[in-house]
Design brief:
Layout (H helix, E strand, L loop, with lengths): L4 E4 L9 H17 L4 E2 L5 E5 L13 E5 L9 H7 L4 E4 L2 H7 L8 E3 L21 E6 L8 H10 L8 E6 L8 E4 L2 E4 L5 H10 L2 E4 L8 H8 L4 E4 L14 E3 L1 E9 L8 E9 L1 H13 L1 H14 L5 H18 L1
Parallel strand pairs: 1-2, 1-3, 3-4, 4-5, 5-6, 7-8, 7-11, 8-10, 11-12, 12-13
Antiparallel strand pairs: 9-10, 14-15
Helix pairs in contact: 1-9, 4-7
Length: about 325
């Protein structure tokens, strides 16, 4: 049986970090798996474009444009709406983003293609050792949307500061750190790590924390869940497609006025919108719950790893290819 042809319209600089890093990894990984079941050809009528909306400046003429993008606020800037409407079809990583885009685009032409988790983020059993502190692990870009401000407050006012029983390991990017720096019981890691080194950090941790104000999908949370790591995350946005109180510890939030930075804007202009602010007091409660009853937390982690088996890149590639194939058959 002949493979369908798909044109791949995006390539990324390997030096990209922060939010742009997420788009790059998504692009590279999905391309790898789509290439296994489709013929990647510049001659194809359908082109896949994976980018933040400010980079989709011009429609690729002569082809059906499938724009794979996302946003983390509840409204879109006008410039984003203009870009969005240039596409023929939209692909989003979660139900939540699809519902956002339906305010501006034909819902019948918007499709969810979830991110996947690579197989090397495998399940590992964990236990508490009396010789090492309980490690909370945070991985995210150094911007407020990822909830690091809430985490700082929780750490300060939750009784964790300088406690020998716990430590906070912060893995981030864009802070010009080449080594691991430790201050008290907080470890700051700004290194560029390969995936094997990153996975090792997941496996060494006892609990993953993502007090996000909004996620298009929440890949770091998905990866942590796949390894069986008990997880705490805001009960909001794209993560709700796979995260709930059965498999983790959802944090309550309050909606309010906030800002989202444009990924590709050198001036760092921000869009005012409604976002979710995780409640610090509830974040503290969930952190204490995990430490006090780690046996129950590990059970949730095991259930989480089982749930995430269906969120793999093979499935994501098949969903995408089947969508394109259906449109090609109809044309």
């Amino acid at each position: 049986m002949n493979k369908i042809k798909i044109c791949w319209g995006t390539r990324y600089n390997p030096a990209f970090i922060g939010n742009a890093y997420g788009y790059r990894i998504h692009n590279e990984t999905l391309l790898k798996y789509v290439s296994q079941i489709a013929d990647i050809s510049n001659e194809a009528e359908d082109v896949i474009i994976i980018c933040s909306l400010e980079f989709y400046n011009k429609k690729i003429e002569g082809k059906r444009n499938w724009l794979f993008t996302m946003f983390e606020g509840t409204t879109l800037p006008d410039i984003y709406v203009e870009s969005l409407r240039k596409a023929d079809f939209l692909l989003t990583p979660s139900t939540w983003v699809k519902q956002l885009f339906e305010k501006y685009f034909d819902s019948d032409k918007i499709f969810v293609v979830p991110h996947g988790v690579e197989k090397d983020f495998f399940y590992r059993r964990r236990r508490i050792s009396s010789n090492t502190p309980f490690r909370f692990f945070y991985e995210g870009a150094a911007n407020p949307r990822k909830g690091y401000e809430e985490l700082i407050y929780a750490w300060k006012y939750g009784g964790f500061v300088d406690s020998p029983r716990v430590e906070l390991y912060v893995k981030t990017t864009g802070i010009k750190k080449s080594e691991v720096e430790k201050k008290g019981n907080v470890i700051l890691d700004g290194r560029n790590l390969d995936r094997k080194e990153l996975i090792n950090l997941y496996h060494k941790a006892h609990c993953f924390i993502l007090p996000t104000r909004g996620e298009g999908f929440g890949l770091t949370l998905a990866q942590a869940m796949a390894t069986g790591l008990p997880c705490i995350a805001t009960d909001y946005s794209g993560v709700k497609d796979f995260f709930d109180d059965i498999v983790g510890y959802p944090v309550k939030y309050k909606m309010g006025k906030g800002e989202v930075t444009f990924v590709g804007d050198a001036k760092q202009e921000k869009h005012e919108t409604e976002i979710a602010f995780p409640l610090v007091e509830d974040l503290i409660v969930q952190m204490i719950n995990v430490v006090k009853d780690y046996k129950s937390a590990l059970k949730k982690g095991r259930l989480a790893s089982i749930r995430m088996r269906s969120f793999n890149w093979n499935n994501s590639a098949k969903i995408l290819v089947d969508l394109v194939k259906e449109k090609q058959c109809r044309s």
